[in-house]
């Protein structure tokens, strides 16, 4: 079974499916989905809920891992609150679809799993990602891939 990696921004989310072993991961699916414009927040949440269910139901998912916002970026701004709400909604979608393995990770989690040095751990993680996958992927996709990848055994 595969792992799903999610990375939210305020304008879109990136959804990836990674399968295989930790030492040899395979990117099965990768999609960036833009949030609808001019939706009220309740309508946007309802839309996101349906989108996540549709994407997750297309795969046999073992775990969902969300690349969360770093603690230093979690200020009390409305965009930060919306992003955290979107991350929390992922937990609800997982639970309602029988997926019990879900977690939220940050850069330190990735650094520990990949045994990275303390300095420039994000750029080191991105380099590892580029060695295994398409060189043209953007940073949000790298974050989602790394999130799903660390859950492989």
Question: Key terms for this structure?
Answer:
5 strands; globular; 153 residues; five-stranded mixed β-sheet; Nucleotidyltransferase, domain 5; alpha/beta
Describe the structure.
The chain is an alpha/beta fold. It has one domain (2-149): Ribonuclease H-like superfamily/Ribonuclease H (Nucleotidyltransferase, domain 5), CATH 3.30.420. It is built from 5 helices and 5 strands. It has helices at residues 41-56, 78-96, 107-114, 121-132, 139-149; strands at residues 2-8, 12-21, 24-34, 61-67, 101-105. Strands 3-2-1-4-5 form a 5-stranded mixed β-sheet. The chain is globular, with a radius of gyration of 15 Å. The N and C termini lie close together (11 Å).
Summed up, what is this model?
By secondary structure, this protein is of the alpha/beta class. The protein is 43% helix and 26% strand.
Distance between the termini: 11 Å
Roughly what fraction of the amino acids lie in strands? 25-35%
Shape: globular
For this structure, what is the CATH class? Alpha Beta
So how many helices? 5
Q: Return the domain count.
A: 1
Class inferred from helices and paired strands: alpha/beta
CATH topology: Nucleotidyltransferase, domain 5
H and E string:
EEEHEHEHHH
Q: Count of DSSP E strands?
A: 5
Give helix % range: 40-55%
What integer value in Å does the Rg equal? Answer: 15 Å
Arrangement of strands in the largest sheet: 3-2-1-4-5
Main β sheet profile: 5 strands, mixed
Q: Provide the low-confidence segments as ranges.
A: none
- What is the averaged pLDDT score? 91
CATH architecture call: 2-Layer Sandwich
- Tell me the CATH superfamily: Ribonuclease H-like superfamily/Ribonuclease H
């Amino acid at each position: 079974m595969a792992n799903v990696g999610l990375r939210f921004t305020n304008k879109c989310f990136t959804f990836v499916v990674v399968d295989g072993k930790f030492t040899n991961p395979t990117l099965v699916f990768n999609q960036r989905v833009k949030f609808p414009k001019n939706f009220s927040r309740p309508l946007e949440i309802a839309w996101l809920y349906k989108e996540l269910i549709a994407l997750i139901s297309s795969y046999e998912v073992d775990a969902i891992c969300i690349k969360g916002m770093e603690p230093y970026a979690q200020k009390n701004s409305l965009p930060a609150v919306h992003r955290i709400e979107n991350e929390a909604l992922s937990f609800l979608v997982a639970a309602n679809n029988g997926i019990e393995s879900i977690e939220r990770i940050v850069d330190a989690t990735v650094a520990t799993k990949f045994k990275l040095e303390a300095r420039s751990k994000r750029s080191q993680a991105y380099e590892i990602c580029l060695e295994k996958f398409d060189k043209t992927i953007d940073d949000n996709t790298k974050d989602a891939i790394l999130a799903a990848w660390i859950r492989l055994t």
